[in-house]
Amino acid sequence: MKREKLFAEFSPNTTKQWEEKIKEDLKGASYEKKLIWNTNEGFKISPYYRDEDLKNINYLDALPGEFPYSRGNMKKTRAWEIRQDIPLDDIRTANQKALFILDRGVTSLGFITNPDKRKSPLRSQEDFSQLMKDILFDRIGVHFICCNKAPEILEYLCKEVELRKAEPSRVSGSVDFDPLGYLTTSGNYYNNEDSDFQALRNLIRLAKEKLSNYKVLGINGYFFNHAGATVVQELGYSMAMASDYLTRLINTGIDLDTVCHHIQFNFGIGPSYFMEIAKIRASRFLWAQIVEAYQPGIEKSKQAYIHSITSRWNQTIYDPYVNVLRATTESMAAILGGTDSLVVRPFTCAYSPTTSFSGRLARNIQIILGEEAYLGKVIDPSAGSYYIENLTNSIIEKAWKIFLRVEEEGGYLEAIKKGIIQSDIKTTAENRSEAIAMRKEISLGTNQYPNFNESVVKEVVHDIAFPPVKPEKFKVMPIRQYRGSMDFERLRLAVENHPEGKPKVFILTYGDHIMRRARATFACNFFAGAGYEIIDNQGFATAEEGVKSALAVKASIVVLCSSDEEYSKLGPAVYALLKNKAILVVAGAPECMQELKSQGVENFIHLRSNMIETLIRYHKKLGINM
């Protein structure tokens, strides 16, 4: 029945007919500019797809649970681990928090440990036993985000299993030991190259011997996601990293099936909804192809175990409840893509520790999606979608090219040492930052439609919102992890901390009703992005009346909003009336711009303005320290 045609009694329209109708409706406008999406990933997305677009994709007949596993590993159910991570600052507090959330729908725990042994409270088997008190770790997943502490934590866990006489094969979870990932983000090894890989070999051997279903090697693709990388870069470099691990471990005598069994992929889930669904599906396909080339003895070795975490890159400290919406769509993308495990970041995590309220919202997002939206009841609901199948295939092709390029350089470690990966991601991150500054990439509540009256300075923990960069000697140049909204947030926080208070921006509207209102809205959002106080107006009968009102409220900036035709006379008139008592800004890029500049009107804001550069310039003019 796979190829059975429904509604065969209706004659189909051809692609040619569709294209002709679209061009007719465009009325001469460019098809390419209006309807084709040129993605950051480097491929084009059409406005629609048809059955004929699937003909060159040769793996679509595979069912869920069948090679190449793009449709997931499971055949009947689509359940995933609902995981919540807990900072391990105090043993007793962490244990109580774990027991509390396990009673409220969480099915998997993650403990975030401090990699500095002097600051970590987890120092002995007794400490570990106290942390695991009353936690049935043979019934739920128990994970540790612990960097170089993974070897000793795995030893503690093995000992705890013996003390409790638990069934070792029922213990699941992970330690995210990842020397290559740590090198990528910190610029250094845990210790050194040889000892790090020796520690990894020992971890895998210990897990094989005592905890057969425990993951000990983490492929932390979310590091790339948090550095502003594209979906394709995150996937391509993650696969290159995993392949490098395979090669090195196999060459030291560990069999392929053992290595594959103890690997966990950790991906970040960003805001591009359909792209993220396709990314997870593509990752399973790519991993299956890579492992198949090694000729594994067990079919299950080709199945990727995927953990997802909602992105930190697009979280904001202003209008933070938008982070709840972001987390919801990201969670849906991860689940529909087929993730095995998911962590939803609390909406406050960009600027403060997790609160009971933000933690509750985070876990309830997953519970609602599973229990009320029934997303766990259907396997691969996106299968057969012309759009998503094509998107999956495009990501596969682009990520594979990145993988092959890294292989040509001698593998992931060699490419990192040469700076190739860092340079590639830096270029993408800079392009995305510029797109945010130009408002081509929207961050709601930050660079578009900001809350004019919002103040967060008392709520923000500065070291969380803007992690300090420690001066270190690097073995390799690390990638920079950051949030896309940070530059805007620094601008607004500088205004909140300004001893003279918020500068006033007076919107002087005059003339053509449509143009002045459109430009007033643009100007309000533009300057509110820096946290200035906005004084909007419905319109003035004369320039004199508008200037008088602006000076009466002691405005620092006056934004003239009118039509291009009226600017040629209005601009110089307002400039003369202000007499340098306030900064005059013209909203728009009128044809008479050069003429206005020659008469002293030199400040303009428009759609091609770089908001960050422009607002920094006004900060300097107003004496606001960054």
Can you lay out the helices and strands and say which pair or pack?
Layout lengths: L14 H12 L4 H5 L1 E2 L5 E2 L35 E7 L3 H12 L5 E5 L12 H7 L9 E5 L4 H15 L8 E5 L1 H8 L6 H18 L3 E7 L1 H4 L5 H21 L4 H6 L1 E7 L3 H20 L13 E5 L11 H16 L3 E3 L12 H16 L14 H23 L3 H6 L2 H18 L24 H4 L20 H11 L7 E6 L3 H16 L4 E3 L7 H10 L4 E5 L2 H15 L4 E5 L5 H6 L5 E2 L5 H12 L4
Parallel strand pairs: 3-4, 3-10, 4-5, 5-6, 6-7, 7-8, 8-9, 9-10, 11-12, 11-13, 13-14, 14-15
Antiparallel strand pairs: 1-2
Brief summary of the model shown:
The protein has about 625 residues and is of the alpha/beta class. The chain is built from 23 helices and 15 strands. It has two domains: about 325 residues, Alpha-Beta Barrel (TIM Barrel); about 120 residues, Cobalamin-binding domain (Rossmann fold).
Gross morphology is globular
The major β-sheet equals: 8 strands, parallel, barrel
Taken together, the total number of domains comes to 2
> Number of helical segments?
23
Class by alpha and beta content: alpha/beta
Helix content: 40-55%
Report strand %.
5-15%
What strand line-up does the widest sheet have? Answer: 3-4-5-6-7-8-9-10
- The CATH homologous superfamily of the largest domain: Methylmalonyl-CoA mutase
Distance between the termini: 65 Å
Query: Taking all residues together, what is the mean pLDDT?
Result: 95
Poorly predicted spans: none
Query: Within the CATH hierarchy, at the fold level, what is the topology of the largest domain?
Result: TIM Barrel
- Name the CATH architecture of the largest domain: Alpha-Beta Barrel
What integer value in Å does the Rg equal? 28 Å
Give me the count of strands: 15
- In the CATH hierarchy, what is the class of the largest domain? Alpha Beta
